[in-house]
Amino acid sequence: MNILVIGGGPAGLFFSIIAKRAVPAATIEVREQNPEGVTYGWGVAFSESAAGALRPAAPDVIDALTAGIRHDRMVLSLDGADVPVQVGRSHLNARWSLLATLERIAVEAGVRIEHESEAAVTESELARWDLVLGADGVNSRTREHFAEHFLPSVELGSNWLAWYGTRKPYPPSIILRNSEYGVLMAHASGFSAEMSNFTVEVGQETFDRLGFADLAEDESRALCERLFADSLAGAPLRSNHSPWFRTKFVSCARWTHRNLALIGDALHTVHPSVGSGTRFAMRDAVYLTEALAGARWDVEVGLKEFERVRKPVADAFQAAAKRSIAWYEGLPSRTITHPTKFAIEYLMRTGRVSYRDFRRENRDVVLGYERDLR
Ligand SMILES: Cc1cc2nc3c(=O)[nH]c(=O)nc-3n(C[C@H](O)[C@H](O)[C@H](O)COP(=O)(O)OP(=O)(O)OC[C@H]3O[C@@H](n4cnc5c(N)ncnc54)[C@H](O)[C@@H]3O)c2cc1C
């Protein structure tokens, strides 16, 4: 069996590992456009529940991805007032370490990885492979090339984000500032002993008032340092291909075409604010491998089964992500003044945590808030 995987991100690499282990005789080739060790962004979170769901597929891989920094608490900070809360455990990795780990294990399993190889499959080339996977991320050219078959929908978010890093150690934190320019938000989280994420998010009006559209990447970074100076306490922000961007919410009406399937962000996205895109992508890989194995690697049958079984689960997860996006995109037009109310709203925003759950985990926080309301 010959398999071509376009894109060496978490989806493509994890699929390659588990598929090669399932069918050692298969030839699996991953084509990745970036040079080895080069990627965008900083650290990505991996929840304990995500690790639990993925571990049976490749225990050694998940052990390697959960061996680093972990957090059990987060801080919601409104205008300098911090509310620490208990949350489910999350594991963090630098994105480049996560990819290096996956790549090392894939190569050990016998997968062939070609870097600086920009793939663009056409209809006629599909016939050269038994299976082709478009795992080429949110801006997937595979999805665009075969758009008439996948029928994608791509919705642009209304907020602007820039993904920076900083040396200041942060627990997972949401930092909200009501400023003269409007609401300023940052998502921070330590992902190694030395580095934290610091993703800045603002609504369109604040983006315009601050003139970010006319600033170079370095000027934007310097302005964000000043806007969040009280939180950063002098620590500089750092860039890693960190331009302003608006999130794309991707979904596809159809998931496969002939022997071609999309997985990961190429197929469907969640949102950075739910911190789950990596595991969402890796779960696609597991569902796909299981569906193909269940069909004894009959690609046509396996791909249909993949869509039938995975789609309802993925749709439910995307619906939760949509609620998170709506909450974030609503923030710029609101004024939140109570730090605990902010914390409660934040944790309940996707509908997956109830007030009762939050109250059980964070009794003191909630009792203080309920006292304030009386
Ligand atoms: C600000 C921000 C914060 C985030 N934080 C988190 C987090 O905390 N936790 C989490 O789980 N997720 C997070 N995510 C989401 C996560 O990064 C993605 O959901 C995840 O990487 C998707 O994996 P993927 O393999 O589908 O795509 P990608 O990781 O994007 O990989 C796709 C790969 O394909 C390659 N490629 C593209 N086109 C071609 C081509 N034509 N030929 C060859 N190669 C190609 C790209 O170079 C890339 O390496 C965050 C995202 C953002 C933007």
From TrEMBL:
Gene3D superfamilies: 3.30.9.20, FAD/NAD(P)-binding domain
Chain ranges of the FAD-binding domain: 128-316
Stored InterPro entries: FAD-bd (IPR002938), FAD/NAD-bd_sf (IPR036188), PheA/TfdB_FAD_monoxygenase (IPR050631)
Domain of life: Bacteria
Bilayer-crossing regions: none
Keyword Oxidoreductase: yes
Signal sequence bounds: none
Pfam families, alphabetized: FAD_binding_3
Keywords annotated in UniProt: NAD, Oxidoreductase
GO molecular function: FAD binding; oxidoreductase activity
Protein name: 2-polyprenyl-6-methoxyphenol hydroxylase-like FAD-dependent oxidoreductase
Organism: Amycolatopsis jiangsuensis
